[in-house]
Amino acid sequence: MKPDTADILEINDINKSFGGLAALNGLSFKLNRKSISAIIGPNGAGKTTLINIISGIYAADSGEILLEGQDISLMQPYQISKLGIKRTFQNLQLFVNMTVLENVMVGYHTRTGSKFAACLTRTAKVKREDKESQKKALEVLEFVDLLGQAQLPATSLSYGERKKLELARALISRPEILLLDEPVAGLNTPEVKIMSDLILSLKESGITILLVEHDMNLVMRISDEILVLNYGQKIAQGSPREIQSDEKVITAYLGD
Length: 256
Known about the structure:
alpha/beta; Rossmann fold; 2 domains; 6-stranded mixed β-sheet; 4-stranded antiparallel β-sheet; 10 helices; 10 strands
């Protein structure tokens, strides 16, 4: 049984440099269970680097990441995904030659157990898993209001719909933690409202959410806690009200 503690993820003294440039410098914080936490900061502050390290795309130079007490710092992305951490990307990563439904079904592969040879020969187990995957995918597509486009090519969707499709793919295996990298970037006002409502409903369902976002109206409206980065360091952490009045945050965004 998983521990019912307030913190689900711990980031302890994470450092990451690229060619001598420190992207993250001694970063530490804890992610509260069943909450929405936002990471904000100027361009180049290290926000996406942090998401990439948590999801295993980058390895930290030093420090540790604990998922419910388990060190995942040296794990590969597929291993971290199996443990329940899913993500979306700042730049959409869809399979353009697949349908909307197939794109979502891909996200269920961590829940299936068939080996490569079994997939080639289409065993009874593979067929059962495919049927289950399709059922789950249709349920998620209904949640994000894309059920009517399930059989269409992913390329036929609008940009806002593609954002929802990538979210659906991350949701199909029911993650414990969802990492969202700029989920409303490029969306118009009605689309932002739809996405924010989806994120809030995910929190209500028990998913812990960590998002990187530049839309301050969205961040202040839906976040329980905000982490502010500048030059790879944490300069503030607190509630939206606390962050709005923090002098260090104002200076980082607006200058002295």
